[in-house]
Amino acid sequence: MKTFNYHVAKDSKEASKLSSSNSAFLAGGMTSIPSLKLGLATYKDIIDIKHIKKLSGIKVSNKTVTIGATTKHAEVASSKEVQKAIPSLAKLAGGIGDAQVRNRGTVGGSIANNDPSACYPSACMALNAIIHTNERKIEASKFFKGMFETALKKGELIESVEFQIPEKSNYQKHPNPASRYAIVGVYLAKHKKEVNVAITGAKASVYVDKDISKALSNNFSISAINNMKINSSEMNSDIHASGEYRGSLVLTYTKKAIEAC
Amino acid sequence: MQKINLEVNGKKISKEVPDHTILSNFLRDHLNLTGTHVGCDTSQCGACVIHVDGKSIKSCSTLAVDVNNSKITTIEGLAKNGEMHPMQEAFKKMHGLQCGFCTPGMVMSAVDLLKNKKNPTDQEIRKWLEGNICRCTGYQNIVAAVKEAASKL
Ligand SMILES: Cc1cc2nc3c(=O)[nH]c(=O)nc-3n(C[C@H](O)[C@H](O)[C@H](O)COP(=O)(O)OP(=O)(O)OC[C@H]3O[C@@H](n4cnc5c(N)ncnc54)[C@H](O)[C@@H]3O)c2cc1C
Ligand code: FES
Ligand code: FES
After folding, report:
1. Higher per-residue confidence, A79 vs A177
2. Which of A17, A143, A210, B77 has an alpha carbon within 20 to 30 A of A252's alpha carbon?
3. Cβ of A98 and B61 within 8 Å?
4. Would you say the pTM of this structure is higher than 0.95?
């Protein structure tokens, strides 16, 4: 592994001051360390943000659940408050990777990385999340730009993610049996005025399926989508699943999510 | 280089390490604690699982500098006064290992499970051990060993 300089930032200001075009923040390290080891990434500076107190913790209000960027998946999964306010979000966190990944990996790292098959981006999209950075607030729909690409500027630090509490919601994942990343993941959220069905794993980046969401907004039942045709032409095809199979999984898992709501 | 202060298996340690030193290498090469194994080296197999401040983590995907000021327990730290930890006893009794390569990570992960859940079901054990891969045993006896340990702890 190539050498780098490790820094501990005390606050957001110091973290962004230390950052450059050749640096990365270190949260759980579950993506950045393996990438460094495999030579997929090299950095001059690694800036540890785990000691910034403000970035960690969970706050629940009547309308929203706000999770600090460095809050670990295991903390979200076991939080009584999250389990009560948005049970599907706690379930999503508890289904990420394995126990040791959940003891290190963070929500901020997950969405900053925007892996096409990561779980959290789908929750952000379905739950109309607002991503709070040290510079601005970004709506989830404007945050995820493409494969491993987000609206974050160099040195911009995610501080927290604010999820809107829905009336009902559910997350269903067809996991890759080795890594537990989603081959297809469906996050369904029924809000007062609309239903959002966000899909991860199927395409280059997370998206909201507009047709399914619209059909379910009009009629929240399996029959509303039973005869729907899914266009799988842009879906990922790999040794795990063909695009067509992913398309079929999208519909199957949406139905499962409706049933579980 | 950075200076790190740690408590490893109850012993205070202070060392200078290059910034990019991986924790599993630090334990094996700098401290000679070779009980922590390295399988995949990319956070997939669980052979390198240790405890940092009581929680199980993968040491192959953690920087040594990142655990400065923490308490670390490796497989070598489980036995007390020459007596095996009940989890180690149970793996022995129930034939929870064959070649033994995955075993340190399995045991460390399973010990963490029982801290979180006193009497886990088969399914809970299997779910918890998802990150620990064994290519010999077929897992049946590992699950049996964790249940045996749960009944003793
Ligand atoms: C074996 C394995 C299985 C996994 N399975 C799943 C799964 O089933 N589902 C799933 O969703 N994920 C899965 N993951 C990913 C994991 O959940 C982590 O969330 C993810 O690796 C990144 O989070 P991290 O905290 O480790 O980030 P790091 O690795 O520390 O950082 C990743 C990137 O994000 C940037 N970053 C981190 N924090 C911030 C911040 N606050 N602001 C701006 N940028 C930031 C860093 O600069 C870096 O580029 C898995 C990972 C592994 C190793
Ligand atoms: S060696 Fe660390 S997980 Fe495989
Ligand atoms: S006993 Fe050989 S890998 Fe598990």
Report:
1. A79
2. A143
3. no
4. yes
The domain A168-260 is classified under which CATH number: 3.30.390.50, 3.40.50.1820, 1.10.260.40, 1.10.490.10? 3.30.390.50
User: Domain A1-51 belongs to what architecture?
Assistant: 2-Layer Sandwich (3.30)
The CA distance from B128 to B124, in Å, is 6
**Residue B31 DSSP one-character state:** S
pLDDT band with cut points at 50, 70 and 90 for residue B49: very high
The single-letter code of the amino acid at A145 is: K
For A2, counting Cβ atoms within 10 Å of its Cβ (0-12 exposed, 13-18 middle, 19+ buried), the class is exposed
Q: Which residues on chain B are in Cβ contact (under 8 Å) with A99?
A: 56, 109, 112-113, 128, 130-131
What are the start and end residues of each CATH 1.10.150.120 domain in chain B?
Answer: 86-152
Q: In which element (H, E) is residue A212 found?
A: helix A210-218
Yes or no: is domain B86-152 CATH 1.10.150.120?
Answer: yes
Residue B58 contacts residue B48 (beta carbons within 8 Å): yes
Q: Name residues 21-40 of chain B within 8 A of A (Cβ).
A: 22
The reply to whether ipTM tops 0.90 is: yes
B interface test, pick of A78, A98, A113 with most B CB neighbours within 10 Å: A98
Fold of B2-77: Ubiquitin-like (UB roll) (3.10.20)
Cβ–ligand 3 distance for B117 under 6 Å, the answer no
B57, A103: Cβ pair inside 8 Å? yes
